[in-house]
Design brief:
By secondary structure, this protein is an alpha/beta fold. The protein is about 45% helix and about 15% strand. The protein binds D-glutamic acid. The site of D-glutamic acid has 16 residues, from helix 3. D-glutamic acid binds near residues 12, 42, 75, 123 and 191.
Length: about 290
């Protein structure tokens, strides 16, 4: 049964969803959070919808025993490829994603002028899905939307490269310059890994381009959903806990997670992909 201490589940392919965790911890400090980073199977962005949906199904099946009050798919790729299917498969769970809040934020940041040029960078799968175009035009039908895949970026982040690393600078310049040349006014970071390089991205695109990271909007969206469902009242309770799960038991996660969260983490719980697979294949799943 869901209680005030029931956790919010946040999941991603690896470290990226921690940008959303950080925003939720600021917006809803007393909430307990379970974070799942599928570190053995990152990146999701080069995989098919069927594969990504199966990974997300396994993770949610595993974490549903904790009776979450809400599940955030803090991965643009998984949101774009799987959110609808997963919401239908788990009708008893409240589940949201990151594409809609990011698209809405981009439309809002684009101001009142006519036909804004909105750029979106994301994984190959996110861009190919057309999910951002579909969402942005709901709010700004007149927008010119330029979507550009940046397939190397999530893996570069997972490697822990800093933003003064020549390879990071080169990759970002290569990816972003064509968008700047085409007059982009608003740029959506359509992958939860990318805000780690936000400062560098802002320097490359220039200060006249509004850079949108959907994490804050996503956290506000979660707050709105929880309030509407009567799952939170005020937020005056003590600070909630954060517990992490990973599918690859490597020291890298805890070390790099500090960059995303500005805090020390307890060692994550290791869940093997075999265990996840067996669980979701059982007749008790869902
Ligand atoms: N952080 C993810 C996203 O928002 C996934 C990146 C990946 O695994 O390719 O798309």
């Amino acid at each position: 049964m869901i209680s005030s201490g029931s956790p919010i589940v946040v999941l991603d392919s690896g470290l990226g969803g921690l940008t959303v965790v950080r925003a939720i911890r600021i917006t809803l400090p007393s909430q307990n959070i379970l974070y799942f980073g599928d570190t053995a199977r990152v990146p999701y962005g080069s995989k098919s919808a069927a594969t990504v949906t199966s990974f997300v199904r396994q993770i949610i099946t595993y974490l549903s025993t904790y009776e979450p009050k809400h599940v955030v798919i803090a991965c643009n790729t998984a949101t774009a490829l799987s959110l609808k299917t997963i919401q239908e498969e788990f009708p008893h769970l409240s589940i949201s994603g990151v594409v809609e809040p990011g698209a809405k934020a981009a439309a809002e940041a684009s101001g009142a002028g006519a036909a804004p040029v909105i750029g979106v960078i994301g994984t190959e799968a996110t861009i190919r899905s057309g999910a951002y175009e579909r969402e942005i035009i709901k709010y700004r039908p007149d927008a010119r939307i330029l979507c550009h895949p940046t397939p190397l970026l999530a893996s570069i982040v997972e490697e822990g490269r800093e933003d003064n690393d020549p390879l990071v600078i080169l990759a970002l310049e290569q990816y972003l310059k064509p968008l700047v040349q085409r007059g982009v006014q608003t740029l959506v970071l359509g992958c939860t890994h990318y805000p780690v390089y936000r400062g560098l991205i802002e320097r490359i695109v220039g200060e006249e381009v509004a850079v949108i990271d959907s994490a804050d909007k996503c956290a506000q969206d979660v707050r709105r959903i929880l309030l509407a469902d009567g799952k939170i009242a005020g937020d005056d309770k003590p600070k909630g806990f954060l517990k992490c799960f990973v599918t690859d038991d490597s020291p890298r996660f805890a070390r790099l997670a500090r960059r995303f969260l500005d805090m020390e983490l307890d060692a994550p719980v290791w869940v093997s992909p075999d265990e996840l697979h067996a669980l979701s294949a059982s007749p008790l799943a869902n």
